[in-house]
Amino acid sequence: MLVVSNIDLTTDLPVMSPSTFLESPIKDFTLNINNDYRYLNPVIPSSENAIDAYRVPILLLRASKGGIPTLPYLVTGSVRQIMSEFDFPVVVFAVNPFSYEGFKVAKNRSALYRAVKSLSMHYKFDVFVQPLKGEMVSFKSFFGKCEMGGKTRKISEKVYEVFKIPICELHVQNIEKDVFLCALQPLRKEEISLADLEMICGGISQISKDGEFLVG
To answer: Which domains are assigned to the chain?
Structure first.
């Protein structure tokens, strides 16, 4: 545990400097017992936005309210309910925010059972399901900028405007000339290329010029 305080504490507990704590293999929690919390700065992204963005149903609820196009969806652990609501094919996402499996497309009943079992961690969690009416497209987004064009780029910009997630992977569905947001997931470090780093540095520079606060 790392204790942060501006009060002269008297304790028999061993003391460790913050830098040593951060470099140690022991990761616990930080206890902030300052008597004045006005030092706390705005953070990008906020805890609320980070939590909401990685939970697909909440992501799409807030996205829809923010003017981002979305599709009908179902949150359930029941394959029978999915088949009663949607025709095949369907696209299935994990609701568990710690899952990095992306999505699975199910074109028939057996494929749907496999997808639900996998993404629900053997039915421990519900899954998020949408009808697949077009083409699924996944792409990286850095501060709302991406290599895509047209309506896809506008969705990337709008997602950053609403959630302020600097680095992420977006999943969208292209249906004819329209684009719909489906999900947002974190990017692994190994997925970030040198070209991506240039975009990230550019985004940081732009935020600094615009006067936004960047912490972390």
So the answer is: 2-32 (no CATH), 42-70+134-216 (3.30.470.20), 72-132 (3.30.1490.20)
